[in-house]
């Protein structure tokens, strides 16, 4: 069912005014409000490891930053956002997707379908050059580059899968990402994504 402009405005107003409990992450994904519990230590340590590998002379990295994907009525909150130093606005709650170079999502047992599905399409629709999925359930990274298309049809033309322990060349950042210290989520049923 298509949402009307009025429905979309109401959903955005509701999203912007919702009272979020401490430790809960909230996102607006194509008109749907999604809430998640706070992340596991494995998750946070992976995010920290990726962030520390970004050369700070050229790249700025942000945590829990809302991204504005104008064409999508979406405000996802990636686990990590990487942009050129000084590329974003000085202040504000939303960072335009046009200034983002890479987003990183670390998969949790409840985010598998979102991270590999709707977010892949959303970030491609937002023309974000690189989307890195770090998956501690199956111990691999999926680097997606060369976004194309719009709406639900948006996707990335190039997909590269690397197992934990292998380096991930992120050409758009001119970085070789080391993954040897990435942890694995214990006791979570494996999936078959991407």
From TrEMBL:
Keywords noted in UniProt: Endonuclease, Hydrolase, Nuclease
Segments forming domain Putative restriction endonuclease: 14-176
InterPro entries: Nuclease_put_TT1808 (IPR012296), Restrct_endonuc-II-like (IPR011335), Uma2 (IPR008538)
The UniProt record lists the keyword Cell cycle: no
Keyword Hydrolase part of the UniProt annotation: yes
Gene Ontology molecular functions: endonuclease activity
Highest taxon of the lineage: Bacteria
Entry protein name: Uma2 family endonuclease
Organism, scientific name: Streptomyces benahoarensis
